């Protein structure tokens, strides 16, 4: 999009009661909404009312293992509907908003994923998005017949080839291949068939996909890895990058790095939208917003935070003093993740104790932004114009109230400033993002 017309992009992370671990314990929360279609439909329609680019569903193929026995059964909501099934249902009841869901390259096959998301693109009229993940939950291995989770490098090596095959399958028919010529009795033109015939290190896939090319040509691809292999994969394959950034300096560095990597891959950096996660807590005054956040924190069990940190770090942290920082010589961990590095850096820079660091996990480790509608708009504008973001993934701590507050109070403020659309100008997710439809 031209710089003079550049506007923010917004996505919503859809969960049952919000992205804060204490959200499900608030007095007006209904935890059973995890499995209720109407709840997610209401969220999608509210986000569509606010002209959001997309709604997004994360996924994991196993319960996240409890590290501390005392927290068993006390963890926040970890069970939810399968994304593709839910998004297909939402497609029938929405008209404009993009519908993105996670599917792992570690425990799925490329043909399966290509077919599922092409189907969602057809069903939704061009609004599908695939969040390409490599599975961070080692317990998934036990549900697919494996004794252990693949190493980080091996997962990303497989993911790179996986994406290559999926793209080739999405392109395995020309746009005009299905002619439906009744007079000639010709259903499709064989000249428009382009099977990948892929023979690689991880996959052998002949193709073509057994359906016509989808409305977007290729569904939008999102990626969330911030490690070195994750950034390399995103720069080469993604249209959207979700990222956890807690301050503008770190966000600017990440933004500049990803844009430079995209250019090095021969891409226009403007075609890669970088969307940090933000958990807005809105009040009529700053004090009211802070009180609302404190209510969420009070509903959060500190031991659950230590358990979540232990899972992220790959080591049991319960033996360390809660009111002291973690030592610098932590044992080596098989889970050397970018999120762990981000948390350790935050602990050092802010002088946090283990208890305080555990409390940060309550918002999934993402940036919490408390304030009035105007002050929140000010901060989002600073990041947007300051080279830190192309938009944001909204992760309200409490749903549905947090989404309604943002759509009805912050969005109008951003629209008044010319920073966000007042109506949809197209019907596809690629159109919302300002991306061209890829040709064949």
Summary keywords:
440 residues; TIM Barrel; eight-stranded parallel β-barrel; two-stranded antiparallel sheet
Protein architecture, described:
- There is one protein chain.
- 37% of the residues lie in helices and 12% in strands.
- With 440 residues, it is α/β, with parallel strands linked by helices.
- It has a single domain (3-286, 366-433), classed as TIM Barrel.
- The strands form 2 sheets. It has an 8-stranded parallel β-barrel with strand order 1-2-3-4-7-8-9-11, surrounded by 8 helices. Strands 5-6 form a two-stranded antiparallel sheet.
- The longest helix is centred in the middle third of the chain and has 19 residues, at 152-170.
- It starts with 8 loop residues before the first strand and ends in a 7-residue tail after the last helix.
- The mean pLDDT is 92.
Number of helices: 13
CATH C-level class: Alpha Beta
- CATH fold category name: TIM Barrel
Average pLDDT over all residues: 92
Shape annotation: globular
Tally of distinct domains:
1
- Order of strands, main sheet, comes to 1-2-3-4-7-8-9-11
The CATH superfamily is: Luciferase-like domain
What is the name of the CATH architecture?
Alpha-Beta Barrel
Main sheet characteristics = 8 strands, parallel, barrel
**What integer value in Å does the Rg equal?**
22 Å
């Amino acid at each position: 999009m031209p710089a003079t017309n550049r506007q923010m992009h917004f996505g919503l992370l859809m969960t049952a009661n919000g992205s804060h671990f204490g959200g499900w314990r608030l007095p007006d929360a209904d935890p059973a909404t995890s499995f209720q279609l109407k709840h997610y439909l209401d969220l999608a329609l509210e986000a569509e009312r606010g002209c959001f680019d997309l709604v997004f569903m994360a996924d994991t193929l196993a319960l996240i293992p409890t590290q501390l026995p005392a927290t068993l059964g006390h963890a926040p909501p970890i069970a939810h509907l399968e994304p593709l099934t839910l998004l297909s249902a939402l497609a029938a009841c929405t008209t404009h908003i993009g519908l993105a869901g996670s599917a792992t390259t570690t425990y799925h096959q490329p043909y399966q994923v290509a077919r599922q998301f092409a189907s969602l693109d057809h069903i939704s009229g061009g609004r599908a998005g695939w969040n390409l993940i490599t599975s961070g939950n080692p317990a998934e291995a036990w549900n697919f017949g494996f004794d252990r989770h693949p190493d980080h490098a091996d997962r990303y090596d497989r993911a790179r080839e996986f994406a290559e095959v999926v793209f080739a399958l999405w392109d395995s028919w020309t746009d005009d291949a299905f002619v439906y010529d009744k007079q000639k009795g010709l259903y499709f033109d064989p000249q428009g068939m382009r099977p990948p015939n892929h023979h690689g290190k991880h996959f052998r896939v002949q193709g073509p996909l057994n359906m016509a090319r989808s409305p977007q040509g290729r569904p939008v691809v999102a990626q969330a890895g911030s490690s070195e292999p994750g950034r390399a994969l995103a720069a080469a394959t993604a249209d959207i990058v979700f990222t956890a950034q807690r301050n503008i300096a770190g966000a600017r560095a990440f933004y500049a790095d990803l844009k430079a990597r995209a250019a090095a891959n021969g891409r226009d950096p403007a075609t890669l939208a970088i969307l940090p996660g933000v958990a807005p807590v809105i009040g009529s005054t700053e004090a009211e917003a802070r009180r609302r956040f404190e209510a969420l924190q009070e509903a959060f069990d500190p031991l659950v935070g230590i358990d979540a940190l232990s899972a992220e770090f790959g080591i049991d942290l319960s033996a360390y003093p809660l009111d002291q920082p973690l030592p610098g010589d932590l044992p080596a961990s098989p889970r050397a993740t970018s999120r762990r590095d981000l948390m350790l850096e935050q602990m050092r820079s802010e002088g946090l104790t283990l208890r305080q660091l555990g409390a940060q996990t309550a918002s999934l480790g993402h940036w919490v932004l408390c304030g009035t509608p105007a002050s929140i708009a000010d901060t989002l504008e600073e990041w947007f114009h300051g080279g830190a973001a192309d938009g944001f993934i909204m992760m309200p701590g409490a749903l549905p109230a947090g989404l309604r507050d943002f759509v009805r109070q912050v969005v109008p403020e951003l629209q008044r400033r010319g920073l966000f659309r007042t109506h949809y100008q197209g019907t596809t997710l690629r159109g919302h993002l300002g991306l061209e439809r890829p040709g064949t």
